[in-house]
Amino acid sequence: MAAFLFPYYPCKYERLSKTHLVVPLIIKESIKLSNHDSEHTETIFRAVEKVMPLANKKLDKTDPKTRVELGLIIRTIGPLWHLAILFTAAVEMTLGKPTADAFSEYTHLIDTVTQLGLDNAYSLKHVLDGKAVSVLLKLKPGPQIKETLDVVMEWQLEHPTGTAEECKKHILALKSNSDS
């Protein structure tokens, strides 16, 4: 279904003074599938623009930044990451990339995700939760907690064997640097 509808992904329509994508409308109203199917299709489509640049560059498996970048993308895509990578390879082939090149690049990307142990990054729990961050930084619930949790996750992806205590030290060091 995603392959059939992908050409329509950029198309939009207006309803009640809001702009909407056509694809969810087609899935729900014409094909009569569920919101779940619509959401999965949109996730795969949105992943194309994130995955394509990764497959086309040389990823250094030893660079912690590679691990963070891949981990955050896998978290964004969720459990459909493998399918999204394969779909993006198919999109590249329809755009004229030789099949052997696309196969090689995207297989390398999947292998890199697997070798870095990021297969399940989408289900990774924060080493510090919102409550711990709130207590640590003496913050009330709000956007700052989410921003800090994003930093926690980046740190966690960069330091896969790191502990909660090490992460706390990192967060406090960042806070003291920003205060000065």
TrEMBL record:
Keyword Lipid biosynthesis: no
Keyword Zinc found: no
An example Gene Ontology molecular-function term: RNA binding
Keywords: RNA-binding, Transferase
Biological process terms in GO annotation: tRNA 3'-terminal CCA addition
UniProt-listed PANTHER family: CCA TRNA NUCLEOTIDYLTRANSFERASE, MITOCHONDRIAL, TRNA-NUCLEOTIDYLTRANSFERASE
Protein name: Putative CCA tRNA nucleotidyltransferase 2
Organism, as annotated: Zancudomyces culisetae (Gut fungus)
Source species taxonomy: Eukaryota, Fungi, Fungi incertae sedis, Zoopagomycota, Kickxellomycotina
